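Schema walkthrough. Field components (list of strings):
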Amino acid sequence: MLSAIAEGLQRVFQLDAELWRIVLLSLEVSLSAVLLATVLGLPLGAALAVKRFPGRRGVIVTLNALMGLPPVVVGLLVYLLLSRAGPLGELGLLFTPSAMAIAQTILILPIIAALARQALEDAWREYEEQLRSLGAQGMQAALTLLWDARFSLITAVLAGLGRASAEVGAVMIVGGNIDGVTRVMTTAIALETSKGDLPLALGLGFVLIAIVLLLNAGAQLLKEAAQRRFG
Amino acid sequence: MSASILPLVLENVAYASNGQPIIAGVSLSITAGPSTIILGANGAGKSVLMRLMHGLLAPSAGSVRWNEADPASVRRRQAMVFQRPVMLRRSALANVVYALKLANVAPSEREPQALAALDEVGLRHLAQRPARVLSGGEQQRLALARAWALHPEVLFLDEPTASLDPGATREIETVIKAFDAAGTKIVMATHNLGQARRLGDEVIYLQAGRVMERAPIDQFFARPATAEAAAFMKGELPWV
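Field assembly_structure (string):
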């Protein structure tokens, strides 16, 4: 056990080529998904926070419920969409990193949108009268809100990133865990563990945890600095 | 566009929230000139009445009409300062520039106008300071600058000094007087009799959502026409 951990660490610090290729692909897939889900999710959250329309509560409840979407189910749905006989089969995306990014986007979009909606609704309660008095409405008010709450929205985006980088089910199904093409950290860990290559699995595990820790620490520092700077 | 958006005429205005009447049967004409104090105890409906006038709330019954048909023009030519100012997470200057941008002021004119407004309230030296780290009094002066930058014809003030210390209150009152002297119509809600006297030309006394009395300031304090107003002043005076 100890020797496996030691070897795992050794592989990380030796910059083992196979290990790093997997790490980079993981980051590429998850960061693309986060970027896409942020671009779609923040405006969605802002619209839900600011606009009043019939059925709004139903939409919010649904969105909150979708935060708990099981990755394997998302994987299955995207698989059906992208498989050769599926409606988007012609794109030939199945078993590519793009398919994985799409699946993760669907998985984390509700998380980012729902958490953003919550943060922005709190801000809106404070800002609404003032902004309406100044004549900001609709889109303009939503954009002001997004910009002013930008530091609290980091939490929403990080929650999405955490979910994307940690999940196995969706990327396994739509990516297929193909060596050198769609193998990412989580699918590799699952595979190497079942094969018995514990050092590689552990090494990847260390890297995964380190990345998540670093990102969260960085975000926390940024938020605190912003708090001091902007109040 | 008409020459003035005043007078503002309220006819039989009522407002209820969750079936609870807050304002009932208010008919008023707010004319250009004298600064108007809306006086009343907490819960009398002062804030709601101000919001009805400013257009943040729609009356449940009755009508609120300006002497101008275009709602966008009405919106641009009035401003409101709240009890607790809401500042955006950006510099003091950028907060004023933001208001000018919403009022469709040309980009090149925004900063000079904003700086002039900050000058007016004595905050120019804090222009680059993040607005949210300013003190309560400074934030309220910034709110006044933000309202002033738009050169409104009518400025609503909803208990602008209620959460400030005496020093900051004096500074705010000085600024309000300057705006009044520059010809802006002041409509201010307060429960502070001393402030009403210092800043007002006329008083509208509000109780339980109804206008009990409207009188020139000296007459109101010397000979209140209603027992309610007299009782309110008796109760308030020891703390002025």
